[in-house]
Amino acid sequence: MHSDQDSIKKSVRSYMMIGLALFAFTAITVAVNQVHLAVPLAITVALIIATTKGSMVASVFMHLSHERKWIYGALILTVIGFFVHLALPVLTNNDHIGTPIHVEAPAAQHTGH
Fold first, then answer.
1. pLDDT 10s digit of each residue in the chain, 113 long?
2. Torsion of CA 10, 15, 16, 17, to 10 degrees
3. Contact 71/64 with Cβ under 8 angstroms?
4. C-alpha 79 chain-centroid distance
5. Nearest to 56 by CA among 90, 26, 85, 35
6. Is the CB of residue 111 less than 8 Å from the CB of residue 105?
């Protein structure tokens, strides 16, 4: 980022716009809370609002919007890790290591002969 007067004004303007948007989303959060939605819908709406607010803060105030390649790489690794973790129970469900093998005793031993 350059430190000339125009870029500083542009940065301050973007900070002010994001600040106003965060204030607006906070007001939306309070308004949605007054509606008393069903729990699953309320959680979904709350997560959408929180994700939007968090994305704005991370991209502008933490300057992550300038690091797109690294952010996309981290997101791709996160998605891959998520699917690997989802697949682990399926893969280990078919694994029979350590499971005792039950062998049927011959029929003569059961009759007492």
1. 456 888 888 888 989 999 999 999 999 999 998 998 999 999 999 999 999 999 888 888 887 777 778 878 888 999 999 999 998 888 777 777 777 777 777 666 555 55
2. 90
3. yes
4. 9
5. 26
6. no
Amino acid at 79: V
Which three-class secondary structure string do you get for the chain?
CCCCHHHHHHHHHHHHHHHHHHHHHHHHHHHHHHHCCCHHHHHHHHHHHHHHHHHHHHHHHCCHHHCHHHHHHHHHHHHHHHHHHHHHHHHHHCCCCCCCCCCCCCHHHHHCC
Residues 6+ apart with CB under 8 A from 73: none
Q: Answer for the pair 49, 29: CB distance below 8 angstroms, yes or no.
A: yes
Residue with tokens 């891959």: 80
Please state, in angstroms and rounded to a whole number, the distance separating the CA atoms of residues 6 and 96. 67
